[in-house]
Amino acid sequence: MHLPDLVIYPEEYAEIRSILTQLASEAKAKLVFLVDRNGQPIASYGDNGSVDTTSLSSLAAGNVAATEGLAQLLGEREFSVLFHEGERDNIHFSIVAHRAILVVIFDNRTPVGLVRLRVRQAAAQFGDVFQRVVERFEKDMLAIGMKGESPFPEITDEDIDRLFVE
């Protein structure tokens, strides 16, 4: 299912950051972040230390996409939760509102059940935020007379291709 890209307004971005902060605290996570389905980071909270969150975001999206392929092979709509266990650290991926991927990195001292519970609660909050983002985006597009069209209708694919030809 293809979902259009959305504009996340400052108010909703602040709310996303607040949810991530609360989740990190309650789940005793080292790092939490939200990634769009294309692998673009939206927001994060925690100690990213030496973690390249841009690469991790891309890999998370690829991991979720591969898992969607596995789900389809098995006749499932999706596997909405992925978990990887390491020697020291664990990583939990969860699809949020069919729009984003919530990534939680935590160590072995934190029970997986606690992370799953807190992620489920945060996912519901993110769902509410994304619903408001969609409604606000649609309202703004209607206000300027656009109904899902490109904001740059005069620019064609050929124009874009010409920009990148040496």
Features:
166 residues; alpha+beta
Helix-strand layout with pairing:
Layout: H1 10-26, E1 31-36, E2 41-46, H2 53-73, E3 81-85, E4 89-96, E5 100-107, H3 112-143, H4 157-163
Antiparallel strand pairs: 1-2, 1-5, 3-4, 4-5
Helix pairs in contact: 1-3
Report on this model:
By secondary structure, this protein is an alpha+beta fold. It has one domain (10-163): Beta-Lactamase (2-Layer Sandwich). The chain contains 4 helices and 5 strands, in the order H-E-E-H-E-E-E-H-H. The chain has helices at residues 10-26, 53-73, 112-143, 157-163, and strands at residues 31-36, 41-46, 81-85, 89-96, 100-107. It has a 5-stranded antiparallel β-sheet, sandwiched between helices. A hairpin with a 3-residue loop joins strand 4 (89-96) and strand 5. The longest helix is centred in the last third of the chain and has 32 residues, at 112-143. The chain starts with 9 loop residues before the first helix and ends with a helix.
Q: What fraction of residues sit in β-strands?
A: 15-25%
Assigned CATH architecture: 2-Layer Sandwich
Major beta sheet summary: 5 strands, antiparallel
As a whole number of angstroms, the C-alpha radius of gyration is: 18 Å
Please state the structural category. alpha+beta
Kindly summarize this structure in a few lines.
The protein has helices at residues 10-26, 53-73, 112-143, 157-163; strands at 31-36, 41-46, 81-85, 89-96, 100-107. It is of the alpha+beta class and 166 residues long. A hairpin with a 3-residue loop joins strand 4 and strand 5.
